[in-house]
Amino acid sequence: MSESDSGSTHRKIAIDNVKVFDGEIIRPRSTVIIDGNIIGDDDSGISDRIDGQGGVLLPGFIESHSHPRKIADLQSLTSHGITTAFQLACFSKEHVHSFQKLPGLVDIYSAGAPAAAPGSTHGNMIQNMISKPNLLVQGEEDVTRWVNDQISWEPDFIKLIAQTPGLSQESLNALVVASHGHGKQVVCHAADANSHAQAMQSGADQIHHTPLDGPITADLAQQVLSRGQIVVPTLSVMKAFAGLDLPGQTSYESARESLRIYHEAGVPIIAGTDANHEIAAVVSFGKSFHDELELMMEAGMTSLEVLRSATVLPAKHWNLNDRGVIEPGKRADLVLIAGDPIADIKAIRNVKRVWVAGEEYTGPRERATEV
């Protein structure tokens, strides 16, 4: 995945009196230099100084599963400290690139259309949204055509849908091989226990969602770990779906228990919400990311682990080597908060200032949540 550039004006800013989260601990008060769009290590020629008032400076949060559709969505993400977000479905080449590289707003990486089978739940959704049969995968023999069509849109990664009825295991496997052949990471949607097994067997790089119909098994978690796959649990949307009282087994406890099992097995977990305003299980942009980290803690993760799941780990697993930590030469994606998020994760709700590639966000903000 390529690293993004910034069009921000070159300025040198010192943020004094801040405690930096370095990915492991919160360090004593110091000064961080923003040198254009990167973190600097030279305090000469400072044009502005900002008093951080003893707040904690974190790397900008990375939201690994969202569906922004308008500028207001990007503003909500950015105002909550999210400086990088992944858009999990676009339905044209123009859509893929429409929100990318907007100065001062969250940096967006996008998939194209998700790979789904005709007659499947997602296949029907896609056809209801945009009636283009060529966006669907007609079977294993159609994989090469479908992947080549998607690659022509220049997406940052490829998304597959595992569900029953849906794509065969052979089709899923072939889609992963073809996508990897083009140098693209593969994300697999899997919202039930059987789909998690399909996603694991497919060799997809990332498995998104956690099942509502029953928890995954410890054996499956070990297989996911051994294959080097990671999980994005999206507890926010799973909780929203469970609250709809839909027919069938939809227990949020199954989703939470699945995360606990993956975590206990040592599978890397990164944070994503499935923020959207298009389906019945609506999930807010920005605020839900803060909720997600709290839900992940309720499933057994520590505050340090969820902070890493929102910063250094997604940068690593999405191959974004220019961000995720506050170090000289790294992209100046920063969020300043009041309070200690390791002592109390709710402190991340007290966002004071946000910088995206060195440019401070100055757009609309929701009122800070009291903690």
From TrEMBL:
GO terms for molecular function: hydrolase activity, acting on carbon-nitrogen (but not peptide) bonds. Transmembrane segments: none annotated. It comes from Bionectria ochroleuca. This is Amidohydrolase-related domain-containing protein. It holds the Pfam family Amidohydro_1. Residues 164-359 form the Amidohydrolase-related domain. Coiled coil: none annotated.
